[in-house]
Amino acid sequence: MMPSVEKTNRSWSNSEQDLLEQTIIISDAGSKESAAGSDDAVSNLPLKSQDRYKFIRSIGFGGMKGVLLVHDKDTGRDIAMAIMPDFRNRPRRDLNRFVREAHITAQLEHPNIVPVHDIGIDGSGSPFFTMKYLHGQTMAMILRQKHSGKESAYTQDRLLQVLIRVCNAIAFAHSKGICHLDLKPANIHCGDFGEVQVLDWGLAAAKDDDFDNGLFLGTPGYMSPEFIRSAGKERPGPAADIYAIGAILYAILANDTPFSGLPQQEILRRTVEGRIKPPSHRGIHVDPGLEAVCMKALATKPEDRYQSVMELRKEILACIAGFPTQAENPSEWRRATLYIKRHWADMIIALLVIIVAMLTFILLKHTGA
User: Fold this and answer.
1) More confident position, 158 or 30
2) Contacts for 285-291: CB closer than 8 Å, 24+ residues apart
3) Residue 8: its pLDDT value, please?
4) Domain spanning 5-321: CATH 3.30.565.10
5) Domain edges within the chain
6) Which tens digit of pLDDT belongs to each residue from 9-38?
7) Catalytic sites, residue numbers
């Protein structure tokens, strides 16, 4: 039986609008908690004066938090501030999740993970945390532009390089016992000067945390089959992030998701059943090595996927460099073809050298005669 789903409210403004990837709630109707007693979620946070921050504009609102652009008077820079506008009406678990997101993100000091600057509560008792303000666009925006046929500076090779940096970030998080659990193009930010950062660690789970089952969020098309099958009652692990990276790779190869246009319940059903059409079956040319890597990462059973993000990363790098992958089980003809592609320039030069040498030999012999 498929779990019931409910969309979260999202009202991003202008360029922040990523409505094609809506987070859903897998819910246990009897598990909702009241906001009473929620002070324990923020009781250890320091009280901070808001005089330090000057409001500039609202960036957007999605799920349980809003994000503002503010000016930090102490450092003289513009930063992003995450807030809970309706914190008084939120259940305790939402407050806990909000504070956990700040703490988990702050622990993950990595070049490809958005840094957290500060955390606290304001005079009204509302929790907040501040982050680096990012310039650029999300991968979801880039893929939507490419899907519409518009020209983009982001070629497939460039997007694959972005995905390698995502793998770096997630592998680092996994080494710390933390899984992201909501990886998708909308949570990958591409900066104007080559920066790549993974955003929104609000659903992240640490191995030492108490697992909050019965109410869990995710995005159809990027959620792993085993997690959907358990209706959010089993703790997901690194295999769930590996599946999501496979889904992102699929979107890069096809400029679209494998389930575009389908209702959420049907997406969940097809995910659990493993009914995913390979990108090449959509009438587009796809490198067979990349497609094999993608489909292995999207395997229905966790044991059939890559067993680590670094293993998946190694396979993507092999494709970029023109080497065969283990996922495709390459034939000798495939290996030979890739070898020629990698060394074609050297082979042409060698051939030219041979031709020149032969012509020189013939010319000298003819002259001598």
Assistant:
1) 158
2) 286/253, 286/254, 287/319, 288/328, 288/334, 289/318, 289/319, 289/324, 289/325, 289/327, 289/328, 289/330, 290/160, 290/249, 290/253, 290/316, 290/319, 291/253, 291/328
3) 42
4) no
5) 5-321, 341-369
6) 333 333 333 434 555 544 443 344 433 344
7) 182
